[in-house]
Specification:
- The chain folds into three domains: 354 residues, no CATH class; 78 residues, no CATH class; 89 residues, Translation Initiation Factor IF3, CATH 3.30.110.
- The relative contact order is 0.09.
- It has 546 residues and is mainly alpha-helical.
- It is built from 24 helices and seven strands.
- The strands form two sheets. Strands 4-3-5-7-6 form a five-stranded mixed β-sheet, sandwiched between helices. A two-stranded antiparallel ribbon has the order 1-2.
- A hairpin with a 2-residue loop joins strand 1 and strand 2.
- The longest helix has 28 residues.
């Protein structure tokens, strides 16, 4: 036993890497194959990736047969690479690239934290990132934002390393910063340029190394590498589609989207992303917020004569604030946009939690938060027990899928958090929270998705599979954007959001065509038509002409 322990200590870096890898597998990859694609974005982007893979047109994106000029292609290329690597197009192969991006971002957090600060800091910061609620959710959705986040963070890791590495290695860090920023642009456009370069602008000003950025050995090769990364696809698309691509991609979906024109439905107040962080950074937001407030109230924030540890945290603070301000200024806001600031926020949280675990810093604040958080989880445990007394029978039936897991996990984390805080075993508190979030992700995601599907998407997927089996086309009457129909029917879908009764009659008269109608839109005019009701769901009907 002593020899085994000595062997583990001797090779602690390897065992740390393996341990993190196992945790990351359960958080990001486990059971990714067990639940269907989610409307709207996931089913849309995976369907587009499938069409790209099948058509072998790796330049132009299509959605339901129409040009799609909203996004650059890196995400879709990664999807196609996964489809080709595994030889099939499934939920698992669609989610594999984004899950690997989630893992890669966490490992990057670990390695840069270990390199600049310590292994403990790297572990804690990477696990805080890996178990933040919104980060977990979006790393298990096959959508673009996690790909953007990965390449932004990788570029910033190398940007930050330019402030700490030796002179002979600095040029390589700068060159990688430019290349990875270019890949971030290819993931989601302008944010992939603004966030890395804007953050490094303020970091180098703060560190008084701004002039260094313009050294020819850094900026000339870096700019060439950046342009070689982003220009080929954009030039090809301009040659293929000309003014149409420029107007749609540059003007509408980058400039107009940022200033809010033509996207009124997505406009939100300036504090929208602060509200998003209040739940998206759960369960760490409570402790991090309370300790930061305490530090500010005591004026316990140094801005000069900092150690490397403190400089690293300050740089992450600059990244966090710049990213938050950039997205908050934009008129168009969605909860997914804010994901690129999570790695820097996790490092700031890692700083506070590492000091708490190792030295008991701000113990009184942390202890109070832990008792409150533990009590909230125990309250959730008892609330889950008594749901039959205050929820309807239908709703109880729906949540019964996930209820046993919720009971087990809420009791475990609530009791464990309070117990370890009482015993002053602060690392135990930390890992109670980590195990709770990891278990919820690994074993709860499928069940949570199944609950969500019961509100209508399961009916749509069933109708799509019915249409595919019987070689029929689909029309959606007075609704759109349900792209699971595209993926699971393997055919184009007619989305008639503005259709009236005459359009419905025409679609019913189309040979081999099925029509899906929302239950709330079923009226006497529709009931009086000569129709055959194939399925009558709780939210949708599937009908055809008799």
């Amino acid at each position: 036993m002593i020899k085994i322990r000595q062997f583990i200590i001797k090779h602690s870096d390897i065992f740390t890497f393996i341990g993190l890898g196992l945790l990351f597998y359960f958080i990001f990859l486990h059971n990714n194959w067990a639940y269907a694609l989610m409307d709207v974005d996931e089913s849309r982007y995976v369907t587009m990736s499938r069409d790209m893979f099948n058509s072998r047109d790796f330049f132009t994106l299509y959605l339901n047969g129409d040009y799609f000029f909203e996004k650059p292609p890196l995400y879709f290329w990664l999807e196609c690479l996964s489809f080709g690597l595994f030889g099939k197009i499934t939920e698992a192969t669609a989610r594999f690239p984004v899950s690997m991006c989630g893992i890669l971002t966490c490992f990057a957090t670990y390695f840069v934290g270990k390199k600049i600060v310590s292994r403990n800091f790297g572990v804690i910061s990477s696990l805080i990132l890996a178990t933040s609620l919104e980060y977990v959710i979006l790393s298990k959705f096959a959508i673009l934002d996690i790909v953007l986040t990965t390449f932004i963070w990788l570029s910033l890791c190398f940007g930050i390393l330019t402030q700490f590495c030796s002179e002979k290695n600095k040029k390589y860090c700068w060159w990688l910063f430019y290349v990875l920023s270019g890949l971030a642009v290819m993931a989601k456009g302008i944010p992939g340029f603004i966030i890395p370069f804007g953050s490094m602008f303020f970091i180098t000003i703060y560190s008084k190394s701004f002039k260094e950025v313009f050294k020819p050995k850094y900026i000339i090769p870096g700019t060439i590498l950046f342009l070689l990364t982003i220009l080929p696809w954009h030039i090809i698309m301009l040659k293929l589609h000309g003014q149409l691509f420029f107007d749609e991609y540059i003007i509408k979906h980058h400039i107009a989207r940022f200033i809010g024109e033509e996207f009124e439905m997505r406009q939100q107040p300036w504090y929208f992303f602060l509200l998003t962080l209040s739940w998206g950074f759960f369960p760490w937001i409570i402790s991090v917020f309370c300790v930061l407030v305490r530090k500010l109230s005591k004026r316990d924030l140094k801005l000069i004569n900092l150690t490397n540890y403190q400089r690293f945290i300050m740089y992450n603070g600059i990244i966090f604030l710049f990213t938050l301000i950039f997205f908050s200024i934009s008129k168009t806001k969605l909860i997914t946009y804010i994901l690129p600031l999570f790695p820097s926020l996790a490092c700031m949280g890692g700083y506070l939690w590492t000091n708490y675990v190792e030295r008991g810093e701000y113990r009184l604040v942390f202890d109070k938060v832990n008792y409150i958080l533990g009590s909230i989880f125990l309250l959730a445990f008892f609330a889950a027990i008594f749901t039959p007394f205050y929820l309807s029978a239908d709703l109880n039936n729906i949540i019964s899928i996930v209820k046993p897991l919720v009971l087990i996990l809420t009791f475990f984390v609530g009791f464990g958090t309070i117990l370890f805080t009482k015993l002053k075993k602060y690392i135990g508190v930390f890992f109670c929270i980590v195990i709770f979030m990891a278990s919820l992700s690994a074993f709860g995601t499928e069940k949570i998705f199944e609950v969500d599907y019961k509100f209508g998407q399961d009916e749509l997927m069933h109708y799509a599979e019915y249409a595919d089996k019987h070689n029929k086309s689909i029309t959606c009457y007075q609704f759109d954007s349900k792209y699971s129909l595209l993926f699971y029917s393997n055919e184009s879908v007619e989305y008639g959001e503005e259709y009236d009764i005459e359009d419905l009659k025409r679609e019913l008269n189309t040979p081999n065509n099925l029509v899906i109608v929302k239950c709330k839109n079923i009226d006497s005019k529709i009931k009086n038509l000569d129709i055959n009701i194939i399925y009558k769901g709780k939210k949708y009907w599937l009908i055809e002409k008799k």
